[in-house]
Structure formats: C-alpha cells, structure tokens
Amino acid sequence: MDVLFSRDKKEQPEPVKARVTGKIPTWLQGILLRNGPGMHTVGKTRYNHWFDGLALLHSFTIRDGEVYYRSKYLRSDTYNANIEANRIVVSEFGTMAYPDPCKNIFSKAFSYLSHTIPEFTDNCLINIMKCGEDFYATTETNYFRKINPQTLETLEKVDYRKYVAVNLATAHPHYDAAGNVLNIGTAIVDKGKTKYVLFKIPATVPGEKSYYHSFGITESYIVFLEQPFNMDILKMATAYIRGTSWASCLAFHKEEKTYIHIIDRRTGKPVPTKFYTDPMVVFHHVNAYEEDSCLLFDVIAYEDSSLYESFYLANLNQNIKENFKFTSIPTLRRFAVPLCTDKNAEVGSNLIKLASTTARALKENDDQVYCQPEMLYEGVELPRINYAHNGKRYRYVFAAKVEWSPIPTKILKYDILTKSSLQWEEDDCWLAEPLFVPTPGAEDEDDGIILSVVISSDPQKPPFLLILDAKSFTEQARAYVDVEVHLDLHGMFIPDTDFDSGKQAPSQEVQDSASDCHVVSETRRA
C-alpha cells in the first residue's frame, strides 16, 4: 500500500500507445487530463502528507478508437527549486521546509517576519481549470499554472493577488453558461482577520478562517459553507519559527456550528437569514438548484476531519486495510434552505414544504434557521455530475465508493429520484474519480460515458483507462498502458472541439482575462 502512495513515479513525456480491448464509441475524441501528487521524496527529504507531493500531470488522448498515454511533472517554481537543491526547500501544507536547514532559532526568528502571511507554493497538484481557450493546473493557494494540455508543458505562473485580493482560492471553480470562471477565495486582512471573496474571471477576456475545498452554485445563488474546520491565523503566522506545518494550525471544533451562507448572484449580497446545521466537514459539493422558493444543495459530508489525517504518509502503510477504520463515513446529504422565510411561522416549525425531500429547516427563537439534511447515500466521495445540469434540477450522481478506507474500490451511479444505484468493481482495483462525458446531442441526463483511471494493487495487472456506458454502467472498453501510472485527484475531459485545427499550445494569456477579474461579493466570517 505504501509503495503505491509514496513511491516516486517516473514521468512519461512521450506518448505511449495503449492496448485497447472492447470498442470505444466513435464520437469520443479528446483528452482526459488529470492531476495529482507523483513525487514524495527529494534527495534525502520526504514529504509528510500525500497531498504535499509534487504535481504530476497525465493524460489519455483518445482519437479514432486509439488511446495514447503520457505524463509529465509540472515544472513549477517549487519543483525547480526542490530539484536544484536536491531536497525539499519549499513548504507544503503538511510539510514545513527551510531553505537553509543549518539556521538556528535566532536566524529563523529573522526569517519569521517574512512568513507571517506565508508565500505559498505554486505546486498546483489538485485540479485542472479551463479559462477561455486555456487550461491551468490549480491548487488551493493564490497561484495557478498555465499548461499545454496536449504536450503537458508548463507555461506561465499566474498570481490571483495581482487581480483580486485573495491569499487562498478553491481548486474547484464553477463555470456559467458564458464560460466565465466563478470562484471563492480567502483574504487575510488587518490583524489576522479574514474575509471571503467571490470573484469572476471573464471567459472572453480574461483571527481564524474556515477551510473549504469547493462551493455550490445555482442560476441565482451561490452556496458557501463556513464549517468548524478552522485555520488559526495566529498559529499559521508563527508556524515557520515554531517549526510546525500549516496543517497543524487546522483544527475541527465539534462543538461549533456549520453556517450556511447563501449569496444572491444578482445583487452580490448575502440572504439576511442566518442558516446553520450540525458540525461537519465538507470537501466536495455535488450540485445545487432552486425549487419553489427553496434552495436545495447536495454535499459529501463527514462528521470530523479524519479524512485529512488519514492521508499522512505514515498512515498509508501495508496494513491500512487492517488498521484503518473510518471514524466518519462520507455521506451524500441533501440540504434545503427557504429563500423566503415566513416571519409569522411558529418557532420549531418546518419551513420546507417540498415533496421531493425530507430535509428540514426549523425556525428558532432568534430568527435563525436550523437545517437538518436528508441522508441520501453512505460511503461515497469524489462526486461528479453531467455538468450541463450544474445549478439545475438533476437526477444522477457519479462517484467513487469507499468502504474500509478512503481509497475507492468501486465507482457508483446513484439515482436521486429512485434512490437506487449501479456499481462497477473489479478485484484488486482502485478507481479514480469517475468523469461523465455526454454523448453529442444527448437529451437524457445520463446519455454518455464514464471515464475512470484504474490502478491495481496486483503488480501483475497493468493500469488502464476504464470506459463505461453511463446509462447501464456496463463496460464498453478499457485501454491498458505498460507504464507506471500514479494515483491522482481531479481532472477534466477536453473534447477535440475545444482545440483549433493544428493548434499545439493555447496562446491567449490568462493575464488578459485576469486583469478584468472582479469581485462579486465579500463576506466577513460569522
């Protein structure tokens, strides 16, 4: 187990032809581009956490029934500095590094002042973002890196702070119908206080804080959870001199509430009613939509922060299956929030009258509203949907199913309407996040295919790209590659229609778009 997680992977910059079994749909033409950690040791130094590893991009190019695989490390400033020094010299979230390991405590004290608001890494290992015609590797810091999706070449480094005042931003932005990028970030302001900033990048012209990894969006509203999984800004400011990681400044407070912020996209102002629910940790929003003056949103929620703890490399050992047990099972939960509250409603009354959900919103004495979710499905993570239904009423969730550990062993299609599910699994296989690709001209929400990268714990079984029919969840094809493939996090499918004929590298500068980046809303933490 630890070999699969912590062993450094070799890049494969030149395309390798895959061995295809089955039949790939003729319409499926494009690039599956994914991102995740690939290197956890540099020289004699080692990262502490799996999420800290150096970003390794990889892709499956699908054309005319053939598949080609390639991979390449993101040549970030972080990567270059570490490789040049032959050791880890740039800090990551779970690993604090020092450019000069011989510094004593007094030398570190002088360096401390420059780290009170840290200079974060540009090791963009989490996701892929599209902006206009260009593509970027992203993480949760203020940096993102432009890449060529066809060659995996690393291009410009972009700093959000040059265009909008944020120190951190999510790695899961949303896209509206016009292709504009919508994201949310955190700004560290005077005396360590924080505020949340919602901002938009146009597609055509480009004390404590709550941790968040994603957010929800509908046609008229943005949904943001302020969860009691908090970063202590004072501790973060002193982490460098204390020799501790930034992750050590993050703590879950089980006695606190989770606040639900609803922001009107038309006015940029929050809905005045204060909504809250029980303490929980959410990494991934699934979808959100409006129905009969209510806003419904679905998330994968935990009752504690044990997921992050489980990915420390020290915990990912050969005995994980025997030793690791979830203390909190990730659960698909549906919340319903009334957009217009009846001031005359009785205290304790349920403000949700929808027949489509059992989720409740209970009015309290102080005009707060306590939201109780409907529990839809237990043991799922890495959710994806047909993105054409993002922000709209929808029916299907495609996700990785997790059981004894956070490592997915099955992928799942869940029908929200009938509460039924379909699954795909194979012995000794670990599956990546399932991506839905719609059939051209499709009318049905589940008319398309599912792509998932599969790695086996059996060294005799090569990795492969799995292609399923999204309706029946039956296998259509698989493409085996005779090279090492790493476990990854997120990615996207880029259809050939997104590339101009003969175009090798997107040329539009993100600075053109980012210079027009503007704030949609600013919200102080509760």
TrEMBL record:
Signal peptide: none annotated. This is Beta,beta-carotene 15,15'-monooxygenase. It comes from the Eukaryota. Residues 504-514 have a biased composition (Polar residues). It comes from Pteropus alecto (Black flying fox). Keywords: Iron, Metal-binding, Monooxygenase, Oxidoreductase. Its cofactor is Fe(2+). GO terms for biological process: carotene catabolic process; retinal metabolic process. Residues 498-526 are annotated as: Disordered. Belongs to the carotenoid oxygenase family. InterPro entries: Carotenoid_Oase. Fe cation binds at H172, H213, H284, H490. Binds 1 Fe(2+) ion per subunit. One of its GO terms (molecular function) is carotenoid dioxygenase activity.
